[in-house]
Design goal:
The chain contains 13 helices and 8 strands. The protein is α/β, with parallel strands linked by helices. The protein has a single domain, classed as 3-Layer(aba) Sandwich (Rossmann fold). The protein is globular.
């Protein structure tokens, strides 16, 4: 796939503020396939320095009697989601849901034909709709996500995700996961690691699909969150989604959330953008052997090529830090034999 020339000029923080609380139910890659790497460790990885660094790290911290040995309780690995475990181009997948939801609600809101940002969206002008920046995005999310229970919203997203297709591949969004990273998750767990997602994406969004897609249970998901309100409806307890932000799990927020949710500093952290820099620094800042890994999107033919100048998944300061500190940098074009489970070549 070629890089799109129409990347949206939307900041990472703006998008996270807007879609912090989206939930979803995936129908993606089967969990049973996650552990099936046989005797060939990380088979979708080429035998390059990146793969060797991962294996060397795992062998050092799991070798009993070694001065580098780490007890299983402390083998914590944290992963970003967008751009690290699944794709994030041409827009974050949660935002794609929010935009599609506007279209489905249009019949109930005839006034949207003349009201921005909805008028542009209904004309198919996505760039124009989001030209209003943060205010436009908050308006879109407010009308599509407020005044609804968590259960009702989960069903809406489930219905969407079973039919919605990625605009470039025609695959469901839950199929746009990285095969090499699925293998890495399984490899770490097979060696006594507990794997966590620590992402700017909505915590409720990820908690529903992550166990099926990645083998990561809901209690091991850390993400951005919106406020909820407990109510009794006809004597039945419900949680209502409010159009208010609770916490953005991005940049310096990631170490904070790791401490609040996990309570242990990770010994391995994996990301792909400047939003992951502080999480990687936090992991590397502890004692003993540590692994910080950056997924660098370099393959315009099989995926996308982007880094410093991208409005989605910008990798600039974190790339400089990785190079200066000697962190592991995965070059997708050269390090991965296969990118997606469906095998785009």
């Amino acid at each position: 796939m070629k890089s799109s020339s129409t990347f949206l000029e939307v900041s990472r923080r703006t998008m996270l503020s807007a879609v912090a609380a989206l939930p979803a139910l995936p129908l993606g890659f089967p969990t049973s396939a996650l552990a099936d790497f046989g005797s060939n460790t990380l088979p979708s990885w080429n035998d390059t320095a990146s793969k060797r660094a991962i294996i060397a790290f795992v062998e050092r911290v799991t070798k009993s009697g070694s001065s580098y040995f780490v007890p299983e309780a402390d083998r914590i690995a944290t992963f970003d989601n967008d751009g690290t475990l699944w794709a994030e181009q041409p827009i974050y997948f949660q935002l794609a849901f929010a935009l599609d939801r506007v279209k489905s609600l249009a019949q109930q809101h005839p006034e949207w034909k003349d009201k921005e940002p909805f008028a542009s969206l209904l004309r198919g002008d996505l760039k124009g709709a989001l030209a209003g920046g943060e205010a436009a995005i908050f308006q879109i999310v407010t009308v599509t996500h407020s005044g609804i229970t968590t259960e009702e919203f989960e069903k809406l997203v489930h219905d969407w995700i079973t039919t919605a297709k990625h605009p470039h591949t025609g695959k469901r969004y839950t199929e746009m996961v990285y095969q090499p990273m699925l293998e890495l998750l399984a490899y770490l767990r097979a060696n006594g690691f507990k794997t966590f997602i620590v992402s700017g994406g909505g915590i409720d969004f990820m908690r529903v699909f992550a166990e099926r897609v990645y083998g990561i249970p809901p209690e091991q998901i850390v993400g951005s969150s919106g406020k909820l309100d407990f109510e009794l409806r006809d004597g039945r307890p419900i949680l209502m989604k409010l159009p208010e932000l609770n916490f953005i799990d991005d940049k310096a927020g990631k170490p904070v959330q790791i401490q609040l949710h996990i309570g242990r500093r990770p010994i391995a952290a994996f990301g792909n953008s400047d939003g992951d820099l502080q999480m990687l620094e936090w992991a590397k800042g502890g004692g003993g052997v540590r692994l910080a890994l950056i997924v660098h999107h370099t393959d315009a033919e099989r995926e996308w090529a982007y880094d410093r100048n991208s409005s989605i998944g910008r990798l600039d300061k974190a790339l400089d830090a990785a190079q200066a500190e000697g962190w592991t940098i995965v070059d997708i074009k050269n390090d991965w034999k296969t990118i997606f489970p469906f095998g785009i070549k």
